[in-house]
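Quick one, T. Sequence first:
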Amino acid sequence: MAFTWGSSLRITLLLLLIAAIVFACFTLPVEKILKDFLLWVDKDLGPWGPLVLAVAYIPLTVLAVPASVLTLGGGYLFGLPVGFVADSIGATLGAGAAFLLGRTIGRSFVVSKLKDYPQFRSVALAIRRSGFKIVLLLRLVPLLPFNMLNYLLSVTPVPILEYMLASWLGMMPITLALVYVGTTLKDLSDVTHGWSEFSTTRWWF
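Structure tokens:
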């Protein structure tokens, strides 16, 4: 099999990305880094804080690192309206970045992973007929892991604008719920270390 310079570059970049994910997951104190990041946003960025928080979703989502800490932090730092807007935009930007990566240099890797998700085959067929609705439903009812779903959807024919809009709308409920939880936390450390004083009533809400 002949390799072109372009394919070699894509494979190299993909291997570097995988190495970065493994390194981040197994060697770096991710929760501490995110907490320090939120402290920095809170103390030093002022009105730029919500924007920086939204942009921070991009590398986390691309590296398949759960971004729920940022979502909770957005609620804690900025309150429900501003935190929700920042987190909602950030989650959508992150999902879009992962989608573009999977559709370009990471396409061959994503295709090789499809065999691990046989239930996705029927989803891919349905997307051909009604892409927007299926993506919206997948975001509302997460049958597949969120971060992996970004990449799996990248190899379907759904247009990126439909994907982004459906993802934005479909992720709103869970984003709103997590931001609300963030507004009830008493200390930033609770963002990464559980919520022992979180009442049953608030959990149900």
